[in-house]
């Protein structure tokens, strides 16, 4: 496939970084203790809480150092991402310590999950038009806790980082439009647990993905609940509206931590899902790595999605949780009708004003507004037939094999 090249000024910056040599890049090494010390210095805090986070972090750091083939800009960017999450973790633990006596009543959150590229973003942002819900903006997810800075510049920092990423790959908007204040995936909250698919999305960290596929996510979701309680305390009367495809294989851990959650699962034919997802991940990896191997990446994505579906299927068979299923063709054909059905299922209040709000959202956000996303399975070494065969069980269960 023809991967997008970085614009010339970023290629030049990377070349300068290489000329400077390894000694200048030593500061950007993925070493746990120096990163921790830097986080301590930035926050004035020193307690990371439950040490369980260290296992995933150690695997991630080794994977990034040894196999991700990060170029100089990517190395500094990924190191900065991890440092941000270490500071977030310190502030999370401090916030929990301060609020230990405060009880927060979590209104049952509405959580959207499902395979990536199955309509989760569209549905999430459509429902978010109802101001009775409290969605989480990207900047809040990336930097949930204020520091000591005055004024608070968290939103501006996230916006600048997004602008840089978009300059490095202008095609990202057509694949997944995101801005600092847009509703976004709550998987970013799990980054401070270091049990998060977001790190694989950000960089070709294959060993970390292998570890993540096998690890128990219970501890991470206990902390996720505490994070939701923190946001709930900011607006006690509003129901949180959340979404992340990564929850799909974590339903057991999610409902163990948040048994009251209202779950919507989106479905789309994996033959369509996989090509779109591979195209997105290849573009994001290109922003940080010199060596993006499309076929290797596509195989990893396929195995990951199969694994997540097996976990989801097993839990649903054994526990029969009250999950409301939404199908991509229905969502595209009658989005407002799909949302109405969700409201009916969970006995949420609907009013005529919501028809107007949803209609306005659809009018100003037509499909392809930010450009047409073109992709195919063949460019990643697969065919429609091979993908259909691997996902035969899923396609049969949800009616995509007809």
Quick gist of this model?
This protein has 402 residues and is mainly α. The protein is built from 20 helices and five strands.
Would you mind describing this structure in some detail?
The chain has about 400 residues and is mainly α. About 55% of the residues lie in helices and about 5% in strands. It contains 20 helices and 5 strands. A 5-stranded parallel sheet has the order 2-3-1-4-5, sandwiched between helices. Helix 4 runs antiparallel to helix 11, helix 14 (about 270-285) crosses helix 15 (about 295-320) and helix 14 packs across helix 19. The mean pLDDT is about 90.
Reading off the top of the CATH hierarchy, the class is best stated as: Alpha Beta
Separate helix tally: 20
Order of adjacent strands in the largest pleated sheet: 2-3-1-4-5
Tally the structural domains.
1
CA-based shape: globular
> Could you say which structural class the secondary elements and strand pairing correspond to?
mainly alpha
Largest sheet: 5 strands, parallel
Q: How many E-type strands? A: 5
């Amino acid at each position: 496939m023809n991967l997008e090249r970085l614009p010339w000024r970023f290629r030049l910056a990377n070349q300068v970084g290489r000329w400077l040599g390894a000694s200048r890049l030593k500061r950007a090494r993925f070493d746990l203790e120096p990163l921790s010390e830097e986080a301590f210095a930035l926050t004035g805090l020193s307690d990371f809480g439950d040490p369980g986070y260290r296992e995933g972090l150690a695997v991630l750091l080794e994977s990034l150092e040894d196999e991700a083939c990060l170029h100089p800009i990517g190395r500094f960017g990924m190191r900065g991402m991890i440092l941000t999450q270490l500071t977030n973790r310190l502030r999370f633990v401090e916030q929990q310590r301060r609020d230990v006596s405060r009880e927060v009543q979590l209104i049952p959150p509405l959580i959207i999950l499902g395979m990536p590229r199955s309509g989760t973003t569209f549905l999430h942002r459509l429902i978010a038009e109802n101001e009775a819900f409290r969605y989480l903006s990207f900047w809040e997810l990336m930097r949930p806790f204020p520091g000591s800075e005055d004024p608070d510049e968290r939103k501006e920092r996230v916006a600048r980082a997004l602008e840089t990423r978009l300059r490095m790959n202008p095609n990202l908007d057509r694949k997944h439009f995101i801005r600092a204040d847009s509703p976004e995936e709550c998987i970013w909250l799990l980054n401070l647990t270091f049990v998060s698919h977001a790190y694989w999305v950000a960089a070709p960290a294959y060993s970390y993905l292998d570890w993540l596929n096998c690890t128990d996510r219970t501890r991470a979701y206990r902390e996720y609940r505490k994070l939701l309680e923190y946001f709930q305390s900011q607006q006690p009367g509003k129901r949180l509206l959340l979404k992340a495809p990564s929850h799909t294989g974590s339903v057991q851990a999610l409902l163990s931590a948040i048994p009251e959650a209202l779950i919507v699962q989106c479905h789309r034919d994996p033959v369509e899902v996989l090509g779109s997802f591979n195209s997105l991940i290849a573009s994001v990896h290109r922003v940080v790595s010199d060596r993006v191997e499309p076929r290797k990446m596509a195989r990893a994505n396929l195995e990951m999605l199969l694994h997540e579906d097996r976990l989801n299927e097993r839990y649903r068979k054994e526990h029969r949780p009250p999950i409301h299923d939404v199908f991509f063709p229905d969502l595209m054909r009658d989005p407002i009708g799909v949302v109405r059905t969700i409201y009916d299922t969970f006995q949420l209040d609907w009013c005529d004003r919501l028809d107007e709000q949803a209609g306005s959202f659809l009018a100003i956000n037509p499909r392809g507004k930010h450009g047409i996303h073109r992709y195919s399975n063949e460019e990643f070494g697969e065919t429609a037939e091979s993908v259909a065969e691997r996902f035969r069980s899923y396609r049969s269960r949800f009616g995509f094999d007809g």
